[in-house]
Amino acid sequence: MLVGCASKEPQGVMDVPECRQAADAVARLPGESNIDYLRAQADAYSICMTAHGYRLDEERLNEELTHVAPVQASNLMRGDPGQLIALRHQQLRVSPSMWQPDSAGTPNR
């Protein structure tokens, strides 16, 4: 059984320090919600990753979010899961595990 687990390749790419710095450099605006702030960071990260020759794996992103939605919706005490799903969406966008080399070319590191 361990062979099956050990043979599974890690998904995504190595974190690009310049892109992480771009996301971290986004200033938080007064009164800005957590989701809006994380979206601004994810936008900065995405622009940088794209410029470095990577693309967001939309299929994997949607697959991850498909698993998040029922789990969050099953907890009736939390109410509407929309906010948590939106937050998770932005968290995944800044995760190198959701990115892959763009098939149009090789990454420019």
Overall description:
A two-stranded antiparallel sheet has the order 1-2. The protein is 55% helix and 6% strand. It contains 5 helices and 2 strands. It has one domain. It is mainly alpha-helical. The mean pLDDT is 84. The relative contact order is 0.20.
Q: How do the helices and strands line up, and which of them pair or pack?
A:
Layout: H1 2-6, H2 17-24, H3 34-51, E1 54-56, H4 58-74, H5 82-93, E2 99-101
Antiparallel strand pairs: 1-2
Helix pairs in contact: 2-3, 3-5, 4-5
How would you summarize this macromolecular structure in one to three sentences?
The chain has five helices and two strands; from the N terminus they run H-H-H-E-H-H-E. The protein is mainly α.
Summarize this structure as a short list of keywords or feature phrases.
about 110 residues; mainly alpha; two-stranded antiparallel ribbon; about 55% helix; flat
